[in-house]
Amino acid sequence: xxxxxxxxxxxxxxxxxxxxxxxxxxxxxxxxxxxxxxxxxxxxxxxxxxxxxxxxxxxxxxxxxxxxxxxxxxxxxxxxxxxxxxxxxxxxxxxxxxxxxxxxxxxxxxxxxxx
Length: 115
Fold this sequence. Notes:
Blueprint: H1 4-11, E1 17-18, H2 20-27, H3 31-43, E2 47-54, E3 57-62, H4 66-78, H5 92-97, H6 101-114
Antiparallel strand pairs: 1-3, 2-3
């Protein structure tokens, strides 16, 4: 699964206006996560301030070459992130939604435990 900042840059076109409220509404993220995403995009130069506000939210504009800038900054920052294995990233509800042999095995184990 892609990080939120990369998904935002892929989904919105150059010149599109975003705020933390839009990110919360579209991607169902928390206040803290959406504001951290905005800060990350601003630091790498993928967005710039428009100088306007929508209530308490500052309006940002997607800049040119935002995807390349975000990917470059993400690769620089990834060496400082905690390393996790791919199988530890999904939780039980996510695993139950997919159709693969792991789900079947998981259901068998649950049936044994419940009986």
